[in-house]
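=== RUN LOG ===
request id: a7f3
mode: sequence -> structure
chains: 1
length: 129
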Amino acid sequence: MAEQKIIFFVDDSITNLTVGRDALSDTYDIFTFNSGLSMLKMLEKKVKIPNLILLDIEMPEMNGYEVLKILKGKEDTMHIPVIFLTAKDDFDSESKGLELGAIDYIKKPFSQPLLLERLEKYFIETIGR
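=== RESULT ===
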């Protein structure tokens, strides 16, 4: 049996974290964080390295763009794919996210089955599962 992929889900909304975890936990090993800073601290410890990060943009302390810049600026995290999962639904926000290195941009509220389908498609296309 293949080892479950690890996904870090970062959002300041407990409701969004709960919905995301519930939607994905049967298929993936989900770790939730209520801020980009808390996720970055976990990555520094190198206890768990995710196969993918789902990242909100609008968060206090540090927004998703800032978190992505930090991730892409460090040799040990620049390879981790990031998908923005956000309520920001304008062209400029999406374009900026992709320019900074996000691999996809999913708008909230998200459909649980569609989110699962997009993640499965990503993993199949990039690593054969």
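=== NOTES ===
Strands lie at 6-10, 29-33, 52-55, 82-86, 104-107.
The longest strand covers residues 6-10.
=== END ===
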